[in-house]
Design goal:
Distance between the termini: 37 Å
Low-confidence stretches: none
Structural class: mainly beta
Mean pLDDT: 94
Number of strands: 11
Number of helices: 1
Length: 123
């Protein structure tokens, strides 16, 4: 069974940085899947933030372009999200997810595996 585990969240002041990590219990997930970061705020729909394909190509939502960077280390079965210049509106639970690659997408419904999330609070 594939497990994704996020870490790195926390409470930070406006303008600071955080680096989220996601690791998988199963190696093939990172070597054969597209990965994504999503956020979910209370009472709102899950929203795609960034995604990365196996070849390293990426896609971001407009609100984080230039501030967030998604990266992956397949040898370590790890996915990262570097979050800079954080704003209060970035506050949410951040989840990582994996899907069989078929083009970059931030549509949550196309992802097969999900972590439990790590909380980010910016104030």
């Amino acid at each position: 069974d594939v497990q994704l585990v996020e870490s790195g969240g926390g409470s930070v002041p406006v303008g600071r940085s955080l680096r989220l990590s996601c690791v998988s219990s199963v190696g093939y997930v990172f070597s054969s899947h597209c990965m994504g970061w999503f956020l979910q705020a209370p009472g709102k729909e899950r929203e795609g933030v960034a995604t990365i394909a196996m070849d390293g190509s990426t896609s971001y939502i407009d609100s984080v372009k230039g501030r967030f960077t998604i990266s992956r280390d397949n040898a370590k079965n790890a996915l990262y999200l570097q979050m800079n210049a954080l704003k209060p509106e970035d506050s949410a639970m951040y989840l990582c997810a994996a899907r069989a690659c078929g083009g970059l997408t931030l549509f949550a419904g196309l992802y097969d595996y999900w972590g439990q999330g790590t909380q980010v609070t910016v104030s």
